[in-house]
Amino acid sequence: MTTFLFFVAAATALAGAFGVVLARNPVHSALFLVMTLISVAVLFLLRDAELIAAVQVIVYASAIVVLFLFVIMLLGVDRKESLEDRIPGQRAAAIVLGLVLLAEIVFLAGHEWATGQETASGVPLQGGGFGGNVERVARVLFTDFLWAFEITAVLLVIAVVGAVVLARRSGQRPDAVPQDAETGEEVTA
Amino acid sequence: MTLGAFTVTDTYYLLVAAMIFTIGGVGVLVRRNVIVMFMCVELMLNAVNLTFVSFAHALNDITGQVIVFFTLVVAASEVAVGLAIIVAIFRRRRNATADDLQALKG
Do the chains contact at B70 and A152, CB–CB below 8 Å? Predict the structure, then answer.
């Protein structure tokens, strides 16, 4: 059953990934992205990562893709892009380079990486009396990675402030603030 | 080969992740719409997440899954800032192909 699920989810994920690249319409690309993300969430479930699968669906497939769709709709870019190559041979070179990259990664993935050594964090994926998946993740996240976890809070705040500043300041045109014709000062009254 | 006797090892997950990563990388190089390029970057990030989870399973250590959370946070921040930059570019010039973005000066 898990074998069957793996092949279905893998095929769907790859089909969705191809769809993201090949779809001419950005909205279609975003929907194909949802397909891939949910399939990858199924793969996470098959690898005993229940919490991450849930977070993947909630954060990625809903929040981030909705953000993408929102920007697409806001800007009205859901028109097809032209097929012509600005740089001659760019597309062919990109595909050749992609195949080289795939060959490299597959060469690495074909090796046996599991060394059978003891776990680094002391919390194994299964067994050992550490409770469920959520408990295990929390145990490591709030002990070994507590400092990094706090830093992510700072990162999120910076990202939110940066997004607000970027999207707001360049939206104001230079003539948006009415100015006095002689002195050049802003008219406040 | 019967399907029941066949077991999916961690290598298969790594291969799927490698393929998704490659498709995303080629997409970044091929597509010219900035938003679609962004989606391809998301594909690559997700492929790396799948690799982390596969290794967590292979090495029987929960740390691989914890790292995925940090990847998720960074990806969310990146999307927020990146889409804000795209919106800012759009307000200045009315298209979003990467070929048009040649000058640092707005």
Answer: yes
Interface confidence, given as ipTM, is: 0.88
φ, ψ for residue B97, nearest 5 deg: -95, 145
| B29, B63, B92, B94: best to mutate for the A interface, most A CBs within 10 A | B63
* Whole-structure pTM value: 0.84
Q: How far is CA B105 from the centre of its chain?
A: 29
Per DSSP, B59 falls in state H
Residue B71 buriedness (CB in 10 A; 0-12 / 13-18 / 19+): middle
B103 Cα to chain A: minimum distance (Å): 16
For residue A18, how many C-alpha atoms fall within 13 Å in the half-sphere facing its CB?
7
Question: CB-based contact (8 Å) between A24 and chain B?
Answer: no
Interval A46-67: pLDDT, tens: 998 999 999 999 998 888 999 9
Q: Token digits for A155?
A: 């990162």
Select from B57, B84, B91 the Cβ nearest to the Cβ of A48.
B57
Q: Does A71 touch chain B (CB under 8 A)?
A: yes
Q: What angle do CA A21, A95, B98 make, to 5 degrees?
A: 55
Cα–Cα distance measured from residue A172 to residue A13, given in angstroms and rounded to the nearest whole number: 41
